[in-house]
Each structure stands twice: as C-alpha cells, then as structure tokens.
Design goal:
The protein is of the alpha+beta class. The protein folds into two domains: 2-57, no CATH class; 63-118, no CATH class. Helix content is 29%, strand content 13%. The protein has helices at 2-10, 41-50, 75-83, 113-118; strands spanning 17-20, 54-57, 63-64, 96-98, 104-106. The strands form two sheets. Strands 3-5-4 form a three-stranded antiparallel sheet, with no helix packed on it. It has a two-stranded parallel ribbon with strand order 1-2. Strand 4 (96-98) and strand 5 form a beta hairpin.
C-alpha cells in the first residue's frame, strides 16, 4: 500500500484517499479483522491522516457463517446474532446466501435501525 501511494504521489497524481481491500482482513470474508501481515495498518492510517489522506477500508456487505463445524463463529457473527440484525426469510429465519467464496453468508437487514447503527 505504501509503495502504491509513493508511486502515485511521485507521478504527480493528486491523492486524497487510499483504499484497503479485503487483503487486510484476517481471513477472507472476516470483516472487522486485521491480518498479521497488516499489523502496522493503524500506524499507516495515522501517517496518511497527518498528510490529509483518508484510508478507506473496503468491507464486504455480509458476514460469513462459520465455515467449518469445528470453527467457532467470529465476533461479528455472534454480535449480529445477539442483536438480530440479519435479513430474514419469509419464515423468519436468517436468510443466508453465497458471498465471494463457497460459504454461506449472512447479510445485515439495512432497513433495520439496529443494523444501520451496528454496521
């Protein structure tokens, strides 16, 4: 990310924001997590901010369900379950669907005021 920013500014291209794609996540589909490879991201974000550049993290519009039976649910899924923010089927169950990968994902119900605040 730093190299891309340096190339851009060196070329004289105005830069007021830089995006961080899902590569910064701990695992694919695990929003609100940070990969070990990007441990320094908060410090880098502060450096950008000091230069008047905003860091924009890209988030998936969903949270993956537990991917494997032996895996625990991640914090975003657990807290979303407790707050009941997921889109529902006509039968009132959590609606699940495909995300970027082959696993089921839960989608926040953006018409739910609680989901809007949480997300």
């Amino acid at each position: 990310m730093r190299a891309a920013k340096e190339r851009t500014t060196r070329a004289g291209v105005p830069l007021d924001s830089q995006c961080a794609d899902i590569d910064v996540m701990r695992d694919p589909g695990r929003d609100f997590t940070l990969s070990d490879r990007f441990r320094a991201l908060p410090k880098y974000a502060a450096e950008l901010r000091a230069q008047g550049i905003r860091l924009i993290p890209l988030l998936d519009p969903f949270i993956y369900e537990r991917m494997f039976p032996w895996e625990g649910r991640d914090l975003a899924e657990r807290t979303g379950d407790r707050a009941d923010v997921w889109a529902k089927t006509p039968a009132g169950k959590d609606a699940t669907g495909g995300g970027w990968f082959l696993y089921n994902a839960k989608f926040p119900d953006y018409t739910n005021p609680v989901a809007k605040v949480r997300w």
